[in-house]
């Protein structure tokens, strides 16, 4: 019995205390307003026919204002493929229903109401506009409650797990920043009857400890998204999260490995052009590895029809590896059929006797005519080989330089998104 000690303390004198204590014992506890239970009839208007639970409580003909508060406890499961994310929220709606009677002698600031009573009272018909799935938890008890304040204000609080859709654009993936929303709209009342507003004190609270695997919440704000339909204007409020992708994962799993593959393909320029299997294998392996890498970088994304930033980078790298392979083809062409000749080099077979005699005649004639002996210049095969090696030598500088240039241009143009 909470009322008795206070009553006793208020009155001085031991005798009065004793008499009052006796009085308190005699009185039934129900006589005290604080402990008295009450039913829906205690808050409903006396004439129940006056209360239409389908009609918002429009005081003096003005639209009912419902104040919203959202506490975001968690954001997770951001799925690029299905363009959804999940959020755990506490969703509070506060409105005043002047039609209700207050329970008599309400001493506390608010009272907890029976949730079944909601069936008989008017309540806002808000719905989550971009939700694909809403989960209401019932363990250990259904996760919602209703408070009735002294000024006939009603607070309805519910905990929900939402799966929300979020339109994402991947044009500058993986340097992208996505805006994901949580929209709440009135289902059946136009703005003439019902208006949603953000709580004036704390409209939105976002748990600071939210940790996403790939993104950072760089901004969170509330906004109005009242929509004009042919049937009228419908009140709507939204929470917007701005999610910026962190580059760490992509640097270590896409950019660095891809650059290494491109660099690997240049090793070919240092291998002798005669060793075809080594150079071809190197080029083809690099190309295949790069394709695998490219497929991996797209794995988590929907197959979008526009070009993404990562595509530009990967395609450029593919072109580089491909060009390294083509470079060998060019080297091989320059080398011509003589490649075998050059390879044989010292193991040149002796000229046939007939040819030898021919040569001897030529030499003797030259000697007799006093012609100076021809300088022993390089053979055509050697000239070709020299040219081929030159192509390799130029490539050794040209490829790394242009790749460095590509990287410089790429990272410079996306510096603002880093
Ligand atoms: C409520 O309090 C008023 C005075 O504040 C008193 O007159 C009335 O009897 C009380 N009613 C009940 C049911 O306790
Ligand atoms: C949400 O926004 C508020 C105010 O703009 C800011 O103080 C808070 O740190 C933000 N929360 C997160 C998780 O970014
Ligand atoms: C709906 O909104 C538009 C623009 O905000 C306004 O011009 C129009 O009067 C509104 N209609 C109603 C029925 O409130």
TrEMBL record:
InterPro entries: GABAA/Glycine_rcpt, Neur_chan_lig-bd, Neur_chan_lig-bd_sf, Neur_channel, Neuro-gated_channel_TM_sf, Neuro_actylchol_rec, Neurotrans-gated_channel_TM, Neurotransmitter_ion_chnl_CS. Keywords: Cell membrane, Ion channel, Ion transport, Membrane, Receptor, Signal, Transmembrane, Transmembrane helix, Transport. The chain crosses the membrane at residues 247-269, 312-335, 394-413. Residues 1-33 form the signal peptide. Gene3D superfamilies: Neurotransmitter-gated ion-channel ligand-binding domain, Neurotransmitter-gated ion-channel transmembrane domain. It holds the Pfam family Neur_chan_LBD. One of its GO terms (molecular function) is extracellular ligand-gated monoatomic ion channel activity. One of its GO terms (cellular component) is plasma membrane. The keyword Transcription regulation does not apply. Residues 49-246 form the Neurotransmitter-gated ion-channel ligand-binding domain. It is found in: Cell membrane; Membrane. Residues 254-335 form the Neurotransmitter-gated ion-channel transmembrane domain. The keyword Disulfide bond does not apply. Belongs to the ligand-gated ion channel (TC 1.A.9) family. This is Putative histamine receptor type-3. It comes from Homarus americanus (American lobster).
